[in-house]
Design a protein that fits this description.
Layout: E1 5-10, H1 16-29, E2 34-39, H2 66-69, E3 75-79, E4 83-85, E5 103-106, E6 134-138, H3 149-154, H4 157-161, E7 171-174, E8 180-181, E9 193-195, H5 212-231
Parallel strand pairs: 1-2, 1-3, 5-7, 8-9
Antiparallel strand pairs: 3-6, 4-9, 5-6
Helix pairs in contact: 1-5
Length: 237
C-alpha cells in the first residue's frame, strides 16, 4: 500500500452535499492523512468521454478508472458519495490481503425492498447489485491493467458492474458492515460505513430514513465550521 490512502469519491452535482458530508466523515475518522479525489466528469474530459446513457449517477462508469488514475500502482479505494464513515478508513484494508486479489468488495446478496430511489430513479434487482459501490483496488494486479478509458467506454454496465474482467477467486470479500445498506438492511450500530443507497437524508422523502440522524449530525459538524468562519470578525485581518 502507498504511504497514504487514495480515496476516490463519486461526485454528482445533484448531490454535491453528499460528497462534502462524506469527506467530513473521512476527515473525522482517519488515523493518518489521506488523498481524497472527487470523481467528477468535468475534470475527466481530457481522458474520458462518457458514452453510456443508462446510469443513475454520473460516476457509475468512471469509477472503474481508479486503477488508471492511480497509474496502476498501490492500493486505491472507491466509494459512492452517499455514505458516511463510522470508523477509520484505514481499517477497511484487510491486513492479510492476498496479492492475487484484484479488487475487494462487500458481496451483497439481497432483493431490494423499494422500487424507486433518489430523484425517482428505478431501483431494480440485478446480479451483484451494489458490489461496486465500495471497491478496494489492487491497482497493480495484472487483470486491472485492462481498465483504460477506451476499454471502459466500450463495455456495458453489466460487464463492468459484475466485475466480469476478473475470475471469481480474484474478487476479495469485505464484511457487509463495510458497506451497510441503510433501509435495505436492519439498523446496525456496528456498521463501519453507512451507505444511504436509496437517498441521502436531505433529499425529500428520505429525511426519516434509518440512521438519518447520524448523517445529519455529520452535516451539522461540517456546517458549524462554515458558520463559525462566516460569523467571525475579520475586520482586523
Amino acid at each position: 500500500m502507498d504511504q497514504f490512502l487514495k480515496i476516490f469519491v463519486g461526485f454528482d452535482d445533484r448531490e454535491a452535499l453528499a460528497y462534502h458530508v462524506f469527506c467530513q466523515s473521512i476527515i473525522e475518522q482517519c488515523s493518518a492523512p489521506v488523498n481524497i479525489i472527487p470523481l467528477c466528469l468535468k475534470s475527466l474530459t481530457k481522458i474520458y468521454r462518457e458514452s453510456h446513457h443508462d446510469g443513475s449517477n454520473p460516476f457509475i462508469y468512471s469509477r472503474f478508472l481508479v486503477p488508471y488514475l492511480s497509474n496502476f500502482r498501490g492500493t486505491s479505494l472507491f466509494f459512492d458519495g452517499d455514505m458516511i464513515f463510522k470508523t477509520d478508513p484505514y481499517e477497511l484494508i484487510p491486513k492479510d490481503i492476498d496479492p492475487n486479489t484484484a479488487v475487494s468488495v462487500a458481496k451483497h446478496h439481497y432483493k431490494t425492498k423499494f422500487k424507486t430511489k433518489y430523484f425517482g430513479n428505478k431501483n431494480e434487482d440485478y446480479p451483484r447489485k451494489n458490489w461496486t459501490s465500495v471497491m478496494i483496488f489492487n491497482n497493480a494486479h495484472p487483470k486491472n491493467q485492462i481498465l483504460t478509458p477506451k476499454f471502459i467506454q466500450d463495455q456495458t454496465g453489466k460487464y463492468l458492474h459484475r466485475l466480469s474482467w476478473l475470475e471469481d477467486h480474484e474478487i476479495g470479500e469485505l464484511p457487509l458492515e463495510d458497506n451497510w445498506l441503510v433501509n435495505e438492511y436492519a439498523h446496525n450500530n456496528e456498521a463501519s460505513l453507512l451507505h444511504y443507497t436509496l437517498g441521502i437524508p436531505c433529499i425529500e422523502g428520505f429525511q426519516n430514513s434509518d440512521h438519518a440522524e447520524e448523517w445529519f449530525d455529520c452535516y451539522r459538524r461540517a456546517m458549524s465550521g462554515y458558520t463559525l468562519g462566516a460569523n467571525s470578525n475579520t475586520d482586523s485581518v
